[in-house]
Design goal:
disordered C terminus, mainly alpha, elongated, single chain, Hypothetical protein af1432, 2 domains, disordered N terminus
């Protein structure tokens, strides 16, 4: 499954790459027209070579820009293509040396700063180290050409200078990379919150429909959420957030929208076909929330909340610890709320009676720890109601 948030992160990197290559192409195109103007004025052999060289470079960069914008390199090689295009431009400038500057290899110290804007650590480290290698090569070549003029200790000073130049460039690049990454992560987080709010609003828009269909008040959402939170407190090792529990309760309530209206009024036992239709509500979480990694536990809880500890549940007959923790909590909370709520085919059980029935299913339908946690959540002592009813028989 293609994760939507990863795709959004890749889209941001691709857009940054597109802009970098575009600006590089525009800059090299500008230089081409400058050289073309110089040739028109001077018409020397040097000007002709310069125009042809920049013309080839312009062609290469615009071709790579068009390829980068297409789907040919997207999501797989887009950042490396961007890095290569920028690197080839720096190589061209260093070799061509239009300013005739002996230390033009210093431009390779700027290259990692530009690549850091892509916010891709693998691309950054790979191409930065390559850039530093080329910088050292050009610098060493320049040093050899003037070795006779070096004073005593010149080689040691040169090595120290090289090290400081590279470390300074690398440190500046890391600062920019970290800052860009922070900005992008903040954008993705904000976008994720907006999508989560959109999902919640969409689900709440369905609540009145479910209320009319099922004739069950929407107060059940808060009731279920509160009960699940109390149960979850008995398992502090499970890192489940309150908003996840709230969303699980909301999706669970809305999932009844998939049931035919007559099911809510039927007093007879469901047919096999009707039972299969009812089971389909487990998949509404997948249908509505698929593609959002942060909602994965919500989806799992809805899909598997009817699985049973002994493997007798549905839809996949999961067993024991294979059932996700939030799904087990939703399953036992739903059973307790259902037992203590009146239906057209039966009266409501008291909390004590419901708890006794669930206790009898500990180790089979439900994990014993879940039943114990439910008892503490509803603040009842085990079997207290039995002792109260039989107290007059004692003595």
């Amino acid at each position: 499954m293609q994760v939507r948030m990863d795709r959004e992160s890749a889209d941001i990197s691709i857009r940054l790459g597109n802009r970098l290559i575009l600006w590089m192409s525009l800059l090299i195109s500008l230089q081409f027209f400058v050289e073309l103007a110089r040739w028109a004025v001077n018409q020397t052999n040097y000007s002709v070579v310069s125009v042809l060289s920049f013309g080839v470079c312009v062609l290469i960069h615009w071709v790579f820009y068009l390829l980068h914008r297409s789907s040919l390199f997207q999501y797989m090689f887009s950042e490396h293509v961007t890095a290569f295009c920028c690197f080839s431009l720096f190589i061209f400038v260093a070799v061509y040396n239009p300013l005739d500057y002996s230390q033009l290899s210093l431009v390779f110290l700027l290259y990692p700063i530009i690549i850091s804007l892509l916010d891709n650590k693998k691309v950054f480290f790979l191409w930065s180290f390559l850039s530093y290698g080329v910088y050292s090569f050009f610098s060493f070549f320049t040093l050899l050409s003037s070795a006779a003029a070096l004073p005593a200790g010149g080689m040691a000073n040169w090595l120290v200078s090289q090290a400081f130049d590279i470390l300074g460039s690398f440190a500046a690049s890391l600062v920019i990379l970290t800052h860009i990454s922070t900005i992008k992560n903040g954008y993705l987080e904000k976008n994720k919150e907006k999508k989560k709010a959109h999902i919640v609003n969409m689900l709440y828009a369905l609540v009145p429909i479910v209320e009319r269909k099922s004739q069950r008040t929407s107060k059940e959402i808060e009731q279920m959420s509160l009960l699940m939170k109390r149960i979850m407190k008995q398992f502090p090792e499970e890192d489940v957030q309150d908003w996840e529990i709230q969303l699980i309760s909301l999706v669970h309530y809305v999932s009844r929208i998939k049931w035919p209206d007559y099911v809510f009024e039927k007093q007879e036992k469901l047919t096999n076909y009707e039972y299969k239709v009812v089971q389909e509500h487990c998949f509404i979480g997948q249908e509505l929330l698929m593609g959002y990694p942060s909602l994965e536990r919500v989806i799992e809880a809805i899909v598997w909340h009817h699985e049973r500890f002994d493997g007798s549940g549905y839809p996949h007959q999961l067993k024991g610890s294979a059932i996700p923790h939030p799904a087990q909590i939703l399953g036992i909370a739903e059973s307790f709320v259902a037992m203590t709520t009146p239906r057209v085919y039966r009266n409501a059980l008291t909390p004590e009676e419901a708890l006794m029935e669930l206790r009898s299913m500990a180790g089979t339908a439900y994990d014993k720890r879940m039943v114990d946690a439910l008892e503490k959540a509803v603040q009842l002592q085990p079997y207290a109601w039995v002792r109260e009813k039989t107290a007059h028989l004692v003595g």
